[in-house]
Amino acid sequence: MIQFKRLDHILVSIPEQATAAARQFYSEILGLREIPGNHPGGAIWFEIADIQLHLREETGGNWSLRHPAFEVDNLDEARQELARKGVEISYSSVIEGRDRFFIRDPFGNRIEFIQYE
């Protein structure tokens, strides 16, 4: 059984060439603290209480990268269980300090499972 711990982050898609406008809105208008760093895909990250909001430019299409990320306590077991049930596992860029993988639900929605080191 997957041992869910909490919602870790949500990735929200923004139009191409909109990163500067998104940074201004989320930091200056909403007052969120930006998490500095060179994040995957040129994303910008913000803190909201104990979760993160990730914003990333994306063109339209059926296989969006937007997703919720669920922190779990047993990532390897979760990966094995999902694979055993026939769920396709995919991977993305490496982020220091965490291990992760992705799945898609039957409707094409992307879901990330993550465990911090």
TrEMBL record:
Transmembrane segments: none annotated. Residues 6-116 form the VOC domain. Coiled coil: none annotated. PANTHER family: FAMILY PROTEIN, PUTATIVE (AFU_ORTHOLOGUE AFUA_3G15060)-RELATED. This is VOC family protein. It comes from Fibrella forsythiae. The lineage of its organism: Bacteria, Pseudomonadati, Bacteroidota, Cytophagia, Cytophagales.
